[in-house]
Amino acid sequence: MTTAVVVGSGPNGLAAALTLAEAGVEVELLEAADEIGGGTRSGHYTADGVLHDECSGFHPLAVDTAFSRAFDLSREGLAWRWPEVQYAHPLDGGRGAAVWRDVERTAQALGESGRAYRRLFGPLSARFDKIAHEFLQPMVHVPRHPIALAGFGMASLLPATWLGRLLRSEDSAALFAGVAAHAFRPLGAPMSAAIGVALGTAAHRYGWPVAEGGSAAITRAMAQRLTALGGTITTGIRVTRREQVAHADIVMLDTSPGAAADILGDALPGRIARAYRGYRFGPGAFQVALAVEGGVPWTHEPTRQAGTVHLGGSMAEIAAAERDVWRGRMPERPFILLGQQSQADPGRRAGDVHPIDAYAHVPSGFTGDATEAILSQIERFAPGVRERVVAMSVRSTEQIVRDNANYVGGDIVTGANTPRQLIFRPRVGLDPYATGIPGTWLCSAATPPGAGAHGMCGHLAATRALRHVGIAGTIGP
Q: PANTHER family from the xrefs (predicted)?
């Protein structure tokens, strides 16, 4: 019987393990931490009964993929829940903008700039199933839907600041800046619009749902299916040498490229070892989890119903902050990504105490304390929120790395989204998952299609592993 060892139990390691086990491979999954899940863990970090997500909170690209279709995890209890407003961007003076799943409703709320918004996101949303099929795999491939991809590609190639100006108002530009800032890179750089266009369109086609009961529900469902298929999971085992896993026919590494190079050692071809060790990481994140009595009192009313909130002011302010963190400087007013998951999943509350998860973009390896900067940005758009905070928990970049070694320097998207790494990651090559060692594959978010709890990196890597050993499995997106 073909055997496999999967190193790392994040969503991609679990997806790889499931894909292999479904094809009849005997799978052993090893996790260094005491708890599986990687970026999809949840816990009561502030107060009893108040449930927070440790990292990944919203999952716009997880609900309809090749992996989700191959493994209907609803049978294991996974349920998605959607907020009324998918994401919002408050501005000073009670102004702001918001995104609903309906393009038309969103455009109408934007007033005079709604026509430009509709012109951008209307056609993309109508074709997004085909578009997502194309970008949820390695960029270098022969497209099945070239016409649909062309419209997406033209918008994605632009700097985010250019596309923001095309939206014709400060509110619309700020709204796009917030979603584009998920890329953790300067908004004036080429292709910096790509992730904003993808996530913005996904909000209309799929929404930005949360997993009922916390993101850990994704982990539980995947682990339950894996064990039902005969796979085993062992925690507290740190793999540092190839000899620990060399007995398996297939080895899948849900690790950073550098960690993979350390594990594989001299067996790794020199050019690939150099590429893995030269893989570039981006800025870090600093997290503050809050338990807030009555929720956050946003002055912009639609923001109170939003699952995700982007804080940073105008597009110019966000662009300046993102440029600073990219250059290693901590901005006075950083960009904040804030999750109000209980808007979609009320069971995460304790009475009227709401979980709030806020992340500031900070320089890689930032050693300072961004707590006050985060609280100040929230207070800026929600005066009086400090008085409602009943408990708080903080995670620095160092603590984030300690909890998940793949997040080098606190980089929770597992790699800088430079033009080169958007197209070729983790290295230039026709097969981004291959390590150059027969039977050994990299399957982390450092491989295509990148960050997100969609499991596609692991699924695609595992399908290649199955081809290599001559087993028919669920192939391709």
A: DEHYDROGENASE-RELATED, PHYTOENE DEHYDROGENASE
- Residue 337 identity: L
Q: How do 306-311 and 336-339 pair as beta strands?
A: antiparallel
Q: CA dist 279 to 114, 310, 425, Å?
A: 40, 29, 8
In this predicted model, what pLDDT tens digit does every residue of 120-146 receive, in sequence order? 999 999 998 888 888 888 876 666 777
Residues 6+ apart with CB under 8 A from 248: 3, 4, 5, 28, 439
Q: Is the distance from CB of 167 to CB of 299 less than 8 angstroms?
A: no
Beta strands in 147-279 (DSSP E): 210-211, 232-235, 250-253
CATH number reported for the structural domain that contains residue 9 in this entry: 3.50.50.60
CA distance 109 to 85: 12
Q: What is the pLDDT of residue 476?
A: 46
Whether the CB-CB separation of 110 and 97 falls below 8 Å is answered with yes
| Spatial distance between the Cα atoms of 429 and 255, rounded to a whole number of angstroms | 19
Position 475 scores a pLDDT of 45
Provide the domain count of the chain: 1
Task: Please indicate, yes or no, if residue 322 is contained in any of the structural domains.
Answer: no
Helix (H) or strand (E) holding 403: helix 397-403
> pLDDT, tens digit, for every residue of 175-221?
999 999 999 999 999 999 999 999 999 999 999 999 999 999 999 99
SS3 assignment, position 453: coil
Q: Which residues contact 215 (CB under 8 A, 6 or more apart)?
A: 37, 39, 40, 41, 42, 53, 54, 55, 56, 57, 59, 453
pTM: 0.94
Q: Tell me, yes or no, whether 451 lies in a domain.
A: yes
| Whether the Cβ atoms of residue 17 and residue 463 lie closer than 8 Å to each other | no
For residue 248, is it within any domain? yes
* Per-residue model confidence (pLDDT) at position 472: 67
CB atoms within 10 A of CB 34: 7
Token representation of residue 452: 């997100």
Q: How far is Cα 460 from Cα 451, in angstroms, rounded to an integer?
A: 14
Which structural domain range is residue 463 located in? 3-45+59-79+211-280+412-468
CA-wise closest residue to 189 among 323, 282, 330: 323
Positive or negative: CA dihedral 341, 342, 348, 354: positive
Return the beta strands (E) in 294-388 as ranges.
306-311, 336-339, 353-362
Nearest to 327 by CA among 281, 371, 373, 283: 283
Q: Tally the C-alpha atoms within 13 A of residue 356's C-alpha that lie toward its C-beta.
A: 31
Asked if residue 366 lies in contact with residue 330, where contact means CB atoms within 8 angstroms, the answer is yes
Q: What is the DSSP string of 174-203?
A: HHHHHHHGGG-S-TTSTTTTHHHHHHHHHH
Residue 358 maps to a domain = no
